[in-house]
Amino acid sequence: MKMSMHHSLLAFLVAGASSMALAKLPAPTPEAQAKAAETAAKAAWSGKVDSYKLCQSQDKVAAHYRRTAKDAKPAVATSGCTDPGPFAYTPPAAKPLEASGAHSPPGTASSPPSTLMPAASAPKP
Fold it and tell me: Keyword annotations for this protein (predicted)?
């Protein structure tokens, strides 16, 4: 009896926790979206820097091998390592409210309606 009560209590706790986990989060604010975009750009730049440093270290190891090995083949011409440069993020320019189309009047009809029946005599749903 006591064991089944513990199991049912555990089941209720798990069900409650899972319903909280499935709750919908509010939409992020424009500031949060801008911060997320900057963080993504910084992460992409960090990946490029890591690739650049790896390329440099591989070139250094290969050069040392060619200097010390007796049967080393000559170096093959490659594109080389490209330095990503310092991190620079330029946020996209925000459109003013007037340019976003929020206050624009509805567009005029460019073609006639697709039915031959007038709207007044059409059956009502």
Answer: Signal
User: Between the CA atoms of 3, 8, 13 and 16, what dihedral angle is there, to the nearest 10 degrees?
Assistant: 180
Query: pTM for the whole thing?
Result: 0.53
For residue 99, being part of any structural domain is answered with no
pLDDT tens by residue, 64-105: 998 898 888 887 887 788 999 999 988 877 766 665 555 555
User: Please, what is the Cα angle at 61 between 56 and 64, to 5 degrees?
Assistant: 125
- Number of domains the chain contains: 1
What is the token pair recorded at 118? 């007038």
Nearest partner of 40 among 5, 87, 77, judged by Cα: 87
Look at residue 59 and tell me if it is in a domain.
Answer: yes
